[in-house]
Amino acid sequence: MASWCSTALATSAIFGVLTLAGCASKPALPSFGVVPDFTLTDQNGASFHSTATLDKKVWVADFIFTNCPGPCPRMSSQMHEVQTALASDDDVRFVSFTVDPARDTPPVLAAYASHFAAVPGKWFFLTGSAPQLNRMSRGVFMLGDVDGSLQHSTRFALMDRSSRIRGYYLTSEPDAIPHLIADAKRLLKENL
Fold first, then answer.
1. Which of 77, 93, 119, 133 is deepest in the core (most CB within 10 A)?
2. 155, 132, 23: which is closest to 78 by C-alpha?
3. pLDDT in tens, 14-72
4. What CATH superfamily is the domain 30-189?
5. Helix (H) or strand (E) run with residue 13 in it
6. Most distant CA pair in the chain: distance in Å?
């Protein structure tokens, strides 16, 4: 009887240690590259310098256009959900790049930002030339071309405080936004 109790106690202890070890050590988020410094135009018509606005911030990016009849309104609502979930932290920013620079002028982007309750100074809607935006979408984020077709990715990208891309989240998946929020909170706790 004593050996059975000893075995059961030892097994319980080992299981408990393994369970705690599994909970304590999550693998690091991967790194998919670094977003280089860039300058575009925000929804207020001002120059947006990434180094001045995003340096040492955790940030989330997406690509949308304001007259999109498809996924963009859903994506912008989801970005608002992320903005709300992370509202108490001043070290987070949100960036929505247009894929339709011909129509998405700063006043149009400002109206769209207002519609989705974008917090000024935290959520930026950016435009620029088609080649600049294509460089960001295709060359940096690897999410597709800005070529006039208005085809674009429905993924959000998450960047850490060093502007490293640490995750992509397909917004049509039901668990994407909760995972993005949890990963952003993890990054907010990381040291530089």
1. 133
2. 155
3. 444 444 444 556 788 888 889 999 999 999 999 999 999 999 999 999 988 898 877 87
4. Glutaredoxin (3.40.30.10)
5. helix 2-24
6. 81
Q: Could you tell me whether strands 155-159 and 47-49 are parallel, antiparallel, or unpaired per DSSP bridges? A: unpaired
DSSP code for 164: B
How many other C-beta atoms lie within 10 A of the C-beta of residue 121?
9
- C-alpha to C-alpha distance for 181 and 85, rounded to whole angstroms: 7
Distance CA 57, CA 192 (A): 10
* Exposed / middle / buried, residue 8 (Cβ in 10 Å: 0-12, 13-18, 19+): exposed
Segments in 55-189 forming alpha helices (H):
72-85, 106-115, 130-134, 176-189
Computed over every residue of the chain, the mean pLDDT equals 84
The helix-helix angle for 176-189 and 72-85 (nearest 10°) equals: 40
Q: pTM to 2 decimals?
A: 0.82
The rounded distance, in Å, linking the Cα atoms of 165 and 59 is: 9
Q: Are residues 127 and 105 in contact, defined by beta-carbon separation less than 8 angstroms?
A: yes
